[in-house]
Design a protein that fits this description.
The structure is a single chain. The protein is of the alpha/beta class. It is about 35% helix and about 15% strand. Helix 8 crosses helix 9 and helix 9 packs parallel to helix 17. The longest helix is centred in the C-terminal third of the chain and has 16 residues. GO terms for molecular function: polyamine binding. It is found in: Periplasm. Keywords: Periplasm, Signal, Transport. It holds the Pfam family SBP_bac_8.
Length: about 375
């Protein structure tokens, strides 16, 4: 694989605004018809002016788009894309609740957040007749538990959460979450956890033998106290900022996502990835249309563009992520199709859990623990 694959840091330095001068053209591929303004939950119709119709604002995770992808979409549709980045579902949700839903036409929430956003009436139900390529999805993604019938979302990618570590720097490699505690002195200030309450609390719970999704008060308290004991060894809580540090040798272990592990190991083969033996999270990131999206037609055009098998396969070869699109998967190189970090075995998947949505009271409880953990 080429070491030219851009890192999150490199991507973030490439401002989406710099793409404003992209040439517009047409290639004749039909991206989908004009969606009906009427949806079945009485959502208000948003007036879209000619400027809005030619622009698409996307709110997503880093490394899910790149300049080539945006340029190709603009060439096919004439729609200019502007991308904003978030690093946690909770940060995204807070922005949506503060009115950001009227700014973006495509958002990439994780599975458990889809149900929460639908409950808060932040999403438009999808018109399946406007989407081309749903039949290309692997069967398990066609009727997901978090969004039955793909009513509000379509899957974009999936993966696991685990530990990225420098195999040349550690005396013994990590194999489970508890490794972080038992090797705390060795890892002091050379370890990062995600800036994500559900993932971090999930790891704390799992390290004690509890479910990643436990809401039992005693178990949550135990996980919080366990994490407090680990806190002195942490360099930081960060979802993205560990990459430069681990490549520079300033970190030895980072909690991260599977696709991040593959791209960073391309720059340093000593960096390896493990899904903890006791289990971890199995997540799906999706594409949704906000209830008050300013460019609904452009949103459907983007979804249909991303369902083109060759578009997705080319993007995966550049950015490395697992696809739920069978047709795109079949176009991947054998090296990627057989990569256990991107496409883990069933034995690994069986010990992982999807993150489940929380009630409002449970969200508040997690938030209180998170604030306390970060401040101790």
């Amino acid at each position: 694989m080429s070491s030219a694959t851009p890192t999150r840091r490199q991507f973030l330095k490439q401002s989406a605004a710099a793409l404003s001068g992209l040439a517009l053209s047409s290639c004749g591929w039909t991206l989908g018809g004009q969606p009906s303004p009427d949806i079945d939950d009485d959502s208000p119709t948003v007036a879209v002016d000619s400027t809005a119709a030619n622009e698409l604002f996307i709110y997503t995770w880093a490394d899910y788009t790149d300049a080539d992808l945006l340029r190709s979409f603009t060439e096919q549709t004439g729609i200019r894309v502007i991308v904003d980045i978030y690093d946690s579902n909770e940060a995204m949700l807070a922005k949506m609740q503060a009115g950001g839903g009227s700014s973006y036409s495509i958002i990439y929430p994780s599975d458990y957040m889809v149900g929460r956003m639908a409950q808060l009436q932040l999403l438009r139900p999808l018109e399946r007749s406007q989407i081309q390529g749903l039949d290309n999805l692997f069967e398990k993604f066609q009727n997901p538990e978090y969004d039955p019938g793909n009513r509000y979302s379509v899957p974009f990618t999936w993966g696991t959460t685990g530990l990225i570590y420098n195999s040349a720097r550690l005396s013994t490699p990590p194999d489970d979450w508890e490794y972080l505690w038992t090797h705390q002195s060795e890892l002091s200030r050379r370890l990062t956890l995600m800036n994500d309450v559900r993932e971090v609390m999930g790891a704390g719970l799992r390290s004690l033998g509890y479910s990643y999704n436990s809401t039992d008060p005693a178990q949550l308290r135990a996980a919080y106290e366990h994490l407090v004991n680990l806190k002195p060894a942490l360099a930081n809580f960060t979802t993205d900022g560990w990459r430069d540090l681990i490549l520079a040798g300033d970190l030895e272990v980072a909690m991260g996502f599977s696709f991040d592990a593959l791209s960073v190991s391309d720059e340093n083969p000593d960096l390896e990835y493990v899904v903890p033996m006791s289990g971890s999270s199995l997540w799906t990131d999706t594409m949704v249309i906000p209830r008050n999206a300013p460019n609904v037609q452009g949103a459907y055009a983007w979804i249909n563009f991303m369902f083109q098998p060759q578009v997705t396969a080319d993007l995966i070869e550049r950015l490395y992520f697992a696809t739920p699109n069978r047709a795109a998967y079949n176009l991947l190189s054998q090296e990627l199709r057989e990569n256990p970090t991107l496409f883990p075995s069933e034995s690994v998947l069986e010990r992982c859990e999807g993150i489940l949505p929380l009630s409002r009271e449970e969200e508040r409880k997690f938030a209180r623990y998170w604030i306390r953990l970060r401040s101790v």
